[in-house]
Amino acid sequence: MSSFLSNLLHVPAPLAAGLIFLLVFGEAAVFIGFVLPGETAVVLGGVLASQGRLALGLLLPLVVVAAVLGDTVGYEVGKHLGSRVLRWSLLRRHQGKIERAQQLLRQRGGTAVFLARFTAFLRAVMPGLAGLSGMRYLKFLAFNAAGGLVWGVGFCLLGYFAGASYAKVESAVGQVSALVLVAIVVIALFVWHRRRRAAQSADEDASAATVSAPAASTDG
Questions:
Q1: pLDDT value of residue 161
Q2: pTM of the predicted model, to two decimals?
């Protein structure tokens, strides 16, 4: 998986742009996000833009449009196939996470659609769950487009500035030192991401306990 994505840095620019579009589009449209997180492809696209191989002015709208269109297809899949989607073997393995995602959607509505854009698993399943829940498409589109815009531009620029910074560091202190610096940054980002996901899981569990508590007392 990682070698496939890293190969984006070495293919011709038009092919790289096409692959980035397909990966971002397919995250929710055909649940590619379970295997290949689209944000990694977006960051690599930003690196290509920093190298002058892709125009940043082309990459930004390409990523945002792919994100919005892919989520729209995912929404329609959930809307028209309904609960049958949840019985797919690919999704049954994640039943607990899907139930928490449904609960988040019930509690926060459109805000959940926006926030889901920034978590790999939720990014893949939330559009389908929104369609399944009967959320109005215009409401879904508004929050989906806002999330796609912030996410797409943010990760494109992250890759762009990271690529530009790497080139400057390498010329100043040498390739080995630059690689060490990049490794430290990557490890720090990984630790931060793990802690954020742990905090999100704790919040979701707390929300689930809050919702179930009144029901338990009513039964008693």
A1: 86
A2: 0.70
